[in-house]
Design a protein that fits this description.
Order of helices and strands: EHEHEEEHEEEE
CATH architecture of the largest domain: Roll
CATH topology of the largest domain: 2,3-Dihydroxybiphenyl 1,2-Dioxygenase, domain 1
Number of helices: 3
Shape: globular
Number of strands: 9
Strand content: 35-45%
Number of domains: 2
CATH superfamily of the largest domain: 2,3-Dihydroxybiphenyl 1,2-Dioxygenase, domain 1
Structural class: alpha+beta
Length: about 150
């Protein structure tokens, strides 16, 4: 059996600037790559679309422990699909934070949508705080404070 390591997690977004305002400006992730992929036959084959035109931005956290890739499809143009957390294939990003209450209030003031305020949850005898929030494309992000 092969051994795998995770390089990054990726989301397709509808508007790169709007997504950067969320992930870079509000969450504090650092942009480490900002590229346009166009007229590259290899990318056409990889993504499965002829004449693919993509805007790709990679971000990482302060500790460089994880990378998030955002992709906006310029061609073919992206289509916004329904995204509820119970739909098959929907992904979410889980972020461990130091002060979930302060972050919740800061993000709430910035207009971020949440399902609820931070709730105390007991998992395997251990207490943590958790909530779901949503990025501009309604992609779910879980915040946890252990």
């Amino acid at each position: 059996m092969s051994r795998y390591t995770v390089d990054h997690h990726s989301f397709t977004v509808s508007d790169m600037e709007q997504s950067l305002e969320f992930y870079r400006d509000l969450l504090g992730l650092e942009v480490i790559k900002n590229a346009v992929r166009k007229n590259l036959p290899a990318y056409d084959q990889i993504v499965g679309f002829a004449d693919a035109h993509l805007h790709i931005v990679a971000l990482q956290d302060e500790d460089e422990s994880f990378k998030l890739e955002l992709i906006q499809y310029i061609n073919p143009p992206g289509v916004v699909a329904e995204r509820d957390v119970h739909h098959v294939g929907i992904s979410h990003l889980g972020l461990v934070v130091e002060d979930i209450h302060a972050l919740y209030h800061r993000l709430l003031e910035a207009g971020v949508t949440f399902n609820c305020p931070p709730l105390e949850v007991v998992i395997a005898g251990r207490t943590e705080w958790s909530l779901y929030m949503f990025d501009p494309d309604r992609i779910p992000i879980e915040l946890m404070q252990k």
